Structure to design on (1097 residues):
């Protein structure tokens, strides 16, 4: 008994209260937003269990219990049992595939009495623990093929299982671990390439192919500038390219040859590729191969985008992506959610309409207003000030978590901490971006704020495990 | 560890940049764009449509034909409907529980959806008395509202074929509505005058904007009503219809299938237009309209089919006038030309005729309706050596027919007018082969049989053209539109037939003799003459084997400065002189004299009491 009390005391003393404070603030904001979103004068009592805000109150208290349990568990439990937790949750994911209940087209829920759980949410915690355990091993080196294979296996198992449940949003969350990998040694080049490819993906859907060529060519010159450290020469080359391209354009016009812009751009690029390869063979600066490979790979990638969008994605996913880049928007159907969401947020103006004064979210103009689109309520009723506060809170939380992770002595805790940052930041960014039309609607909740027990408990557990690891960092 | 710190800083900077991007986009939505604020207002304001009163319809003498009455639509806002007493609502609105339950289920369903705060139609066209009761008890029915609408009231017992009716817009109309004026639940004029003058009669909807409070209750007018647009009432129209004449004509043709059209020849104004059987437009209003519509649509006598405009009938012997006039213009016959007839035209397969004195000149051939005479004339027209061959001759003949308004739509203002039919050279080439037919093959055209079809409106127009001695004005029902001094220009224009004015008098003489000769000298309609009215008419009997002949008559009166031209077509009523002629002359007498002379009361009674429905039923069974 005594030792437990002592440990509890030390926990309280060494707990990072700033994070706890931000956590409680976000949970509170979530609750009043849910209250506002579903408020109905016939059910105005705050603990009305027939209403979502009444239920959310229960989830919140249960969440606090989860937090407490996470803090009270022995710290070694997490590293020792990480693999078992992972295994158990994976089995649960398989179980859901067969015995789950379908909600909104995703067969990802299990029902225990009245309580519905979403194992996909728990899989995030389990994978974070398992990754931290794997990567903190003594013999682990990120640049080994076997290590990469192990990491890939750990991540792909839940991703595939969640994909099979048709819960694309939750599966995509695992992409966020790239932030953690970056910190743990992934090259900045890979990160840049990753971001560049995402940009090319969306640009390919909106711009003509020749513009994409010009962008890729520009990027290639930038890469050349960085690798060769000859900035003036890179600029000179770029200017030369521009001249050739313009001349080619004028020449085809003057000769009255009908060629597409695409061919002209490609021909100009061809000159440079041949020139570059010739120089590479002569002088052997290896990075020129890299640049040529980069150029060709991204060009091929941009061509594959249309194919992927048309043939690989499901129709509703294709429509969401097309809507995002401004194509085929039908405000009555596919574009409705985001449009209504933008209206709700936009109508909040600078100071907002005031608590319970929002007309858009309250009257069901915005769908999923208490779950995925809860940010609309905040935007409408609390205006830019409210949005600023919420975004700032997430930034504080994320940055504070980065700082906390960095101060860990154990690699396990640091890696786990970065996993937590990755997951929370990804949710926060994508969720808000989709409500304001910056990201496709992939239906993932806003951490701590969106309605729902599973999501709240998962994020609570995710966060408080880190707080426990942090509080025990001197042990 | 140095690398770790550098990467940590990059991550933090990227996080902050991402946060800034989000905030910038939010800033652009919330502060730098008015669009979303306005869009939100559109969402949250309640826009109540103000329905304009529909224009009234008057007859040519200023009598009301169609006026408005107020009915009420009961509307519900699903999410405001709580715990209502179903028995009470049934009693108040006078409906059965079986009707109410599905409606309540719909309300429950909508409560959950996004349209929970929008009005849904609960019951339409509730009469004023029921509405008063509902108003009294409205405190018992939270979430229910009523909206006043105008509905039509029909002052005279005139058929819906002429007047048309007013109905809720359906899907097809909404889809084809290019101006996007109509919305679900709006009313629109269908068929007849209501459809023809929909654009004038309907007016323009207005809108009142109200602010909703937090509880979505409609509070006060937005901006003190400054942004409201008032409804603009529809314009009333005066029609060319003579309500008394129309009613009388409908009474005469009751229980017979057919059509009557009466025109004022000099102006083309439609005085009366009857399609029989008709239907009461009253059936199309009120709460039983759906049931009534279904019954009318499946009625075997097709009461909603406007025969006067849409049925193409063979004109029978009335068409001899056209043959005579064309022959005179072409110079192949003179008024004095005489042809003999011994019970018919005995060339080729021949055309039969009835017993009458022989030979006859042109006026008397019309008076006694000699078939042989017109076989001669017709052949001389189409076989005229100046046209070289029969194809050219027939084409010329068809040109004449076109100039009389046949074979094409007259372009009247009523909707659904048909073109009728005329023979074509190709048609005969197809049937018989090129150069394998001659005038004898198509001889029945001479006497209005065969490939010729006229709508009763075209027949009346032909009569008016003869009455006018060579021209017609497109028949129309519009006389005056409220607030405007003119009607469409096409209703002032004279269309000249290809037959010159001087040729009409011998033909008209024949029509005069047909009615006004003493009985017993072979005139086809002498028994229906009206002393003093100088009715000029011609009977027609269209063969319709194996059924009874159709009975046809067209006429105008008086002989000089005609005031009325009438065409009557009665299906399966036998020879034209038997039923159509007395009916047509009664219409003329009623219009010119205002009443039927004592000497003709028995004719009137006889026409009214003629009931051919059994005959038709027998025909349908066959």
């Amino acid at each position: 008994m005594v030792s437990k009390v002592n440990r509890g005391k030390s926990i309280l003393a060494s707990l990072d209260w700033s994070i706890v404070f931000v956590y409680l603030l976000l949970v509170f904001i979530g609750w009043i937003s849910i209250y506002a979103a579903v408020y109905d004068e016939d059910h105005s009592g705050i603990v009305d269990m027939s209403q979502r805000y009444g239920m959310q109150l229960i989830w919140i208290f249960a969440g606090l219990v989860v937090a407490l349990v996470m803090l009270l568990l022995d710290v070694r439990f997490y590293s020792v049992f990480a693999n078992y937790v992972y295994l158990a949750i994976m089995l649960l994911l398989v179980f859901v595939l067969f015995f789950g209940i379908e909600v909104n087209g995703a067969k990802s829920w299990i029902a225990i009495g009245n309580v519905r759980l979403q194992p996909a949410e728990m899989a995030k915690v389990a994978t974070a623990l398992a990754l931290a355990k794997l990567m903190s091993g003594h013999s682990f080196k990120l640049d080994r093929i076997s290590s990469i294979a192990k990491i890939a296996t750990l991540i792909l198992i839940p991703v595939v299982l969640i994909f099979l449940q048709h819960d694309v949003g939750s599966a995509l969350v695992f992409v966020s671990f790239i932030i953690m990998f970056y910190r743990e040694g992934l090259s900045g080049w890979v990160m840049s390439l990753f971001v560049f490819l995402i940009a090319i993906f969306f640009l390919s859907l909106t711009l003509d192919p020749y513009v994409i060529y010009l962008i890729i060519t520009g990027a290639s010159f930038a890469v050349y500038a960085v690798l060769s450290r000859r900035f003036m020469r890179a600029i000179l080359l770029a200017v030369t390219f521009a001249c050739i391209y313009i001349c080619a354009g004028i020449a085809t016009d003057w000769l009255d040859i009908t060629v597409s812009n695409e061919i002209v751009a490609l021909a100009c690029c061809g000159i440079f590729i041949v020139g570059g390869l010739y120089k590479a063979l002569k002088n052997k600066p290896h990075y020129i191969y890299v640049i040529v490979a980069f150029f060709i790979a991204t060009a091929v990638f941009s061509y594959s985008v249309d194919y992927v969008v048309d043939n690989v994605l499901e129709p509703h996913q294709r429509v969401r992506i097309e809507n995002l880049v401004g194509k085929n928007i039908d405000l009555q159907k596919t574009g409705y959610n985001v449009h209504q969401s933008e209206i709700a947020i936009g109508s909040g103006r600078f100071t907002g309409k005031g608590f319970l004064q929002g007309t858009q979210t309250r009257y069901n103009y915005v769908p999923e207003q208490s779950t995925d689109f809860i940010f609309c309520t905040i935007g409408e009723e609390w205006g830019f000030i409210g949005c600023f506060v919420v975004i700032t809170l997430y930034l504080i939380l994320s940055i504070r978590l980065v700082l906390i992770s960095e101060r860990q002595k154990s690699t396990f805790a640091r890696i786990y901490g970065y996993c937590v940052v990755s997951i929370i930041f990804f949710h926060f960014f994508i969720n808000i971006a989709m409500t304001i039309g910056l990201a496709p609607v992939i239906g993932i909740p806003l951490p701590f704020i969106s309605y729902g027990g599973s999501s709240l408990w998962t994020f609570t557990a995710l966060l408080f495990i880190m707080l426990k690891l942090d509080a025990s960092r001197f042990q | 560890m140095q690398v770790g710190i550098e990467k940590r800083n990059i991550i933090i900077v990227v996080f902050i940049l991402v946060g800034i991007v989000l905030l910038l986009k939010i800033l652009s939505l919330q502060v730098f764009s008015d669009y979303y604020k306005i869009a939100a207002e559109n969402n949250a304001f309640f826009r109540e449509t103000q329905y304009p009163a529909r224009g009234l319809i008057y007859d040519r003498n200023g009598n009301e034909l169609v006026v408005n009455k107020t009915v009420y639509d009961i509307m519900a806002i699903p999410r405001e409907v709580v715990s209502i007493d179903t028995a009470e609502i049934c009693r108040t609105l006078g409906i059965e529980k079986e009707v109410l339950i599905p409606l309540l289920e719909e309300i429950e369903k909508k409560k959950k959806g996004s349209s929970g705060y929008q009005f849904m139609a609960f019951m339409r066209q509730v009469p004023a008395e029921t509405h008063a009761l509902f108003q009294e008890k409205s405190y018992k029915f939270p979430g229910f509202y009523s909206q006043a609408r105008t509905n039509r009231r029909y002052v005279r017992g005139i058929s819906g074929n002429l007047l048309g009716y007013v109905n809720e817009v359906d899907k097809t109309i909404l889809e084809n509505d290019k101006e996007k004026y109509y919305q679900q639940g709006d009313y629109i004029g269908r068929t007849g005058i209501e459809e023809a003058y929909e654009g004038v009669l309907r007016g323009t909807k207005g809108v009142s904007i109200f602010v909703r409070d937090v509880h979505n209750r409609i509070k006060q007018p937005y901006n003190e009503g400054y942004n409201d647009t008032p409804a603009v009432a529809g314009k009333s129209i005066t029609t060319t219809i003579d309500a008394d004449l129309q009613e009388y004509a409908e009474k005469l043709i009751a229980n017979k299938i057919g059509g009557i059209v009466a025109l004022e020849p000099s102006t083309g104004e439609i005085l009366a237009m009857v399609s029989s059987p008709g239907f009461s437009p009253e059936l199309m209003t009120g709460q039983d309209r759906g049931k009534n519509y279904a019954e009318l649509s499946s009625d075997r006598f097709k009461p909603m089919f406007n025969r006067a405009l849409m049925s193409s009938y063979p004109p029978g012997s009335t068409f001899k006038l056209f043959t005579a006039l064309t022959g005179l213009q072409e110079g192949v016959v003179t008024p004095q030309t005489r042809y003999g007839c011994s019970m018919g035209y005995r060339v080729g397969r021949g055309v039969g005729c009835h017993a009458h004195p022989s030979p006859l000149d042109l006026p008397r051939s019309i008076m006694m309706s000699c078939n042989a005479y017109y076989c001669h004339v017709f052949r001389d027209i189409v076989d005229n050596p100046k046209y070289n061959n029969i194809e050219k001759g027939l084409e010329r003949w068809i040109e004449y027919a076109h100039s009389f308004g046949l074979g094409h739509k007259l372009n009247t203002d009523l909707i659904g007018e048909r073109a009728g039919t005329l023979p074509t050279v190709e048609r005969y080439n197809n049937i018989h082969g090129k150069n394998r037919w001659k005038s004898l093959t198509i001889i029945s055209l001479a006497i209005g049989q065969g490939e010729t079809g006229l709508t009763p409106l075209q027949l009346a127009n032909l009569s008016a053209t003869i009455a006018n001695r060579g021209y017609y004005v497109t028949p129309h029902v519009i006389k005056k539109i409220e607030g405007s001094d003119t009607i469409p220009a096409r209703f002032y224009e004279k269309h000249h037939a290809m037959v010159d004015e001087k040729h009409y008098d011998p033909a008209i003489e024949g029509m005069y003799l047909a009615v006004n000769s003493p009985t017993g000298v072979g005139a086809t309609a002498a028994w229906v003459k009206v002393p003093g009215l100088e009715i000029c008419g011609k009977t027609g009997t269209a063969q319709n084997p194996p059924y009874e002949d159709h009975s046809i008559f067209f006429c105008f009166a008086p002989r000089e400065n005609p005031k009325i031209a009438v065409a009557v077509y009665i299906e399966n009523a036998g020879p034209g002189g038997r039923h159509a002629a007395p009916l047509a002359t009664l219409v003329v007498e009623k219009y010119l004299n205002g009443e039927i002379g004592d000497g003709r009361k028995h004719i009137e009674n006889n026409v009214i009491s003629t009931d051919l429905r059994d005959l038709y039923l027998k025909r349908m069974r066959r």
